Amino acid sequence: MNDEYMVSGAGQKPRLITPPKACETHSHIYGPAHKYPRVPGRKPAFGASIQAYQAMLTRLGFERCVIVQPSLYGTDNRCTLEAIRHIGLSCARGVAVTKKDVTLEELQRLHDAGVRGLRFFLLVDDFRLEDAPEMAKRIAPLAWHLQIQDRGNWLKEAIPILEKLPVPVVVDHLGRTPPENGVQDPGFQALLRFMEKGECWVKISAPYLASADGPPHYADVGEKVRALVSVRPDRLVWAANWPHPNHTPGNKPEEADYLDALLDWVPDARTRKGILTDNPAILYDFDH
Predict the structure, then answer these.
(1) 21 class by beta-carbon count within 10 Å (0-12 exposed, 13-18 middle, 19+ buried)
(2) Per residue in 169-213, pLDDT tens?
(3) Using CA of residue 197, residue 278, residue 98, residue 70, what is the dihedral sign?
(4) Does domain 23-283 have CATH number 3.20.20.140?
(5) Could you state, in order of their start, the residue ranges of all structural domains in the chain?
(6) Residue 272: left if φ>0, alpha if ψ -120 to 50, beta else—which one?
């Protein structure tokens, strides 16, 4: 690991002016390897400091944030919790990864440190879809949500399980359905129905993982966002997915591009305020 290479928080200044208390809801912090050992074989092999992350937030105009436990650290949440402490509970929350046999006492410790969700990263982590009902029971007493990510043709199988859970479900990165299928993808259509009738939230994030058109406009992602807004605008949040772990250093996407895209995707200012400020305040328990 090359801990000397640290991702920068620099980039373009967006045209969009964020509302007060806007919240960026999905990014990761990677600290020094000697302090926070990595899970062998997992990427990325670069650092992403809390200072660089805060520079990115300031550049984009976000006062609040949610730091998500990366797969790089497995169930060792120390780096994520330290980042939350650094920013402070008035402005930061977290999403953790735990072991399957996590105790209520450990969950309470994480809750007191600012965690409000449990991550199911099905591409890498040990959790499988069939673990969701049991883990949802464990986190329900703390009013957490279950955050889930997979890719491809997964949602039609997953949603019948997820819609029965006793906790809200947050679907990462617009569901990561096959980009070439667009809005008519059967999994994306199932996601729309889940949002309409269930306790489902969706992150408008990492459009490069859901787009065949690509930057700077991500036009096909815009079609998906408009469809989501037409169903449940009160169940949408926005995220940068910094520092973009799927990309090589020096080739990161420009966060301002897909923040500015909201001006086209969500032209109503009140709805944008809901996505950027009001909705995350509810989901991440900022105002209690």
Answers:
(1) middle
(2) 999 999 999 999 999 999 999 999 999 987 999 999 999 999 999
(3) positive
(4) yes
(5) 23-283
(6) alpha
